[in-house]
Amino acid sequence: MLNAVLFDLDGTLLGNEMGAFVPVYFKALTDYMAHLIPPEQLIAGIMAGTQAMDANDGTGATNQEAFERVCYARLDKGRDNFTPVLRQFYREHFPQLRPVTQRLPEARRLVDWAFEQNLEVVIATNPVFPRQAVEHRLAWAGVPVSEYDYALVTSYENMHATKVTPAYYREILSYLGLAPEACVMIGDSWKLDIVPAAAVGIPSYWIVGSDSVAQDDAPSDDGVPLIGSGTLADLWRQVEEEGRLQPSTFNL
Ligand SMILES: [Mg+2]
Prior knowledge:
8 strands, globular, alpha/beta, single chain, 252 residues, 11% strand, two-stranded antiparallel ribbon
């Protein structure tokens, strides 16, 4: 029986091609912080901090702790110099990035449907961003935390691994107290959404073929339990027709 649905955010619930978004985001952030630190030094610190998060295995520090330890050592400045300015950036300037993304009408329909089915709904976005940045993007997607009582929204504050490792999906299962077969992951990245979820036994729907989504990689692993693939609109059509996430031919 299905108990929970895990939605990726960027490229899944929200039209957001990371190749276009990240440069605009880094430019906005480094411009905003330029009075504190030269842009290239800040980017080097962020990259080092991101690698530290990706090295997290789910058992130790939060991603935020791992990020800050490495990033601020690299910047040679204490976190107290940055924290209030960063908070203000995410509150006041991050919202200006919204035009780089596209709202998808099916996002809200699918999330509404999942809540109507009494499923636990998890926003399983790669937890390398602060909660503030995730909440903004959920609002842009039309599914804000102010309206939906998500079981879990993963961010760098509450997770101890990123999507590069199955430990991320293991941590979600343990938080929900659910077996992997009771969950479905919906995401657009073969490497970050489909393969590591499959490694812990969670079947997936692979989002492909939308104009707003750039495929970062191609499937290579046979035996990965896909329940289907298509655009978010395709998935919504299937849910409307079958009344369920899994096609009737798929045995869960
Ligand atoms: Mg994605």
